[in-house]
Amino acid sequence: MVDIEQLNPRNEAALRAWWEVGRAAAADRPGNPWPAWEQSRVALPADNPEGGITVLAAIDDREMVGAGLLVRPLRDNLHTASVSVYVRPDRTREGTGRRLAQEMEVVAAGDGRTTLHAEVFVAPGTSGTPPEAFAAALGYEVASREAFRELEMAGYVARRDRLRAQAADAAAYRVVTFDTVCPDEHVVSFGRLLGMLLDEIPLGELDLSASEWTPERIRAAEQRQVGIGRHVLTALAIAPDGSVAGSSDVRVNDTDTTHGQVGITLVDPTHRGHRLGLALKLATHDLALATYPGLRAVDTSNAEVNTHMQAVNDALGYRTIETLLELQKRL
After folding, report:
1. Model pLDDT, residue 169
2. Fewest beta carbons less than 10 Å away: which of 75, 86, 205, 223?
3. CA separation for the pair 329, 52 (Å, rounded)
4. What is the CATH number of domain 150-321?
């Protein structure tokens, strides 16, 4: 009989078993799909001002065969929660994943959450895969489709001089870079830009609304990143009037400095048409390489309908390795 239990993420032995289940479940995916143990060991138990977590385990005779993670936003979109389910490959098709998902629905509903989000990764160009069928059987619909892409940094280095010439239209803007902590003189304007994010990126049918990023919220989020050893290598485009016109970042963890991931890339609509997206991505990728010479690859994802950002990523040399399906269920 498989039992579903909540885990204390500060119980390192239990968390390691949970992490091993997730790693096994992600083993057949391309790229770098699962965080290093040393990163999970620090990040999951750490206080997070942005989200509360519930860690679940499926236990069969003292052996962990499934894992679940429920994340509830604490600052905005308080009607939502994100669900992740992992089942050990040798124990699939036994109903374990369904029971984990159902338990997380109970926890989310008890916290007043009415919309659940989840992610499924499938091979590009495929449909009707087992993960999609599993999600559909649980009542999740595809709300958005994204291309999950990877950039080999050696190829990027070979083409970046040509790309700089393409970004010449951004010359009227000053680019400021920093590691995680935004300079004081830009933090208010940076928060204004961050507040636009969910209004400006393609969300498909996802039930999400924009939020407010005060200096206090930014500083709290920065301190969490510093505390868990994650470096948010950021570039800001500063307009002639001193306002932040755009931002992009690459995130690299102390526990694995060979891989990075793009977080947010956003340009204020009033400043578009100057190749700022390309200029900012060049700045962050260059900063990441200068900081971590052993960096081998960077991942990113963008909505398939976001043709402008797809074109920027094509120019940089990103290639699609998976399709990310953003799923949604209303309770």
Report:
1. 86
2. 205
3. 19
4. 3.40.630.30
